[in-house]
Amino acid sequence: MPLKIVRRLIPDWGTTYGPPGDGPFPAVMILHGSEGAWSGWSHRNAAILAAHGFLAFPFGYSSGGNAWNAGSIVDVPLDRTVEALAALRAYRFAGPKTGIYGVSRGAEHVLLLVSLMLRDGVEGVPEALAAHSPPDVVCGAFDARRWRDAGDPGWQSWDPGHRAWSWRGSTEGLLPTTPIAIEAYEGPLFLSHGTADRVWSVDMTRRLAERLHRHGRTPEIHYYEGQDHIPGSAAENEHHEHLIAFLERNLAP
C-alpha cells in the first residue's frame, strides 16, 4: 500500500510531513508549546495537517533538550524562525502561500514573531496565522526541568525574571507583560481557546480579540466551552475542523 503521508527533509532545517506526489502543497510551519521540541506533539499535529493535504513543517525552536528533557524556552532567537520560514517557502514542495500555526507558547511565538517582522519591515510575512490558547502579552522564560525537579517552592509555569525571546541579538522590548502588537497584521488570523483553560486564561484571547476589533481587524475566533488548555477528543475534532477549513481557505491555490 502506498503511503498517504510522507516525510521529506528540508536540508539543514528538519523534516516535513505531507501528501505523496510532487506538489506543490500549501505549507504550514508548526510551532510547539512549552512541552519543547523533543516531546513530539508538533510532529503529531503536522501529521494531522499532512493527512489533509498540507506540507507541514514542525519547527523545533526550544533551547537544548534531549529524549528525556524536551527543551526550554529561554532566549529563543526569533530571527532563526524567520530563516526557517524562508527555507520552507523556498522548498520545492511548498506552494506559493505559507501559514504558521502555534499552540500555547507556540501561539505566543507566532503572534510576537509576525508583529516584529511587520514593525521592522522584514520580508516573508506569512499569508495566514493560527494561534490556539495564545497570550495577549509577552511571557517569561520557561525551563521544563523545574516541572520535573522536586523542592522548588517558587515554581511557576513561566519565569517573569528571565526573557523567553530575543530579536536581532537583543531582548530589548521583550519584557514579560509587554503587549504583542499583532493588530498590525492585515492578513487572515485564526484564534481559539478553551473557556476553562487552567494554564492560560481565556481572558487573554478575549483581550486580544477586543484589541484587534478596535483596530478594525476581523479575526476568526472560536471558543470551546468548558475545555481546558488541551481540548478533549470531541472538542479537538471540532478545533481541527475549524483550523483546517481556515487554512484551506487562505493557503490553498
UniProtKB/TrEMBL annotation:
GO molecular function, one term: hydrolase activity
Species for this entry: Aquibium pacificus
Residue ranges occupied by any Peptidase S9 prolyl oligopeptidase catalytic domain in the UniProt entry: 172-251
Name assigned to this protein: Acyl-CoA thioester hydrolase/BAAT C-terminal domain-containing protein
Record-linked InterPro entries: AB_hydrolase_fold, Peptidase_S9_cat
Gene3D superfamilies: alpha/beta hydrolase (3.40.50.1820)
Keywords: Hydrolase
Domain of life, source organism: Bacteria
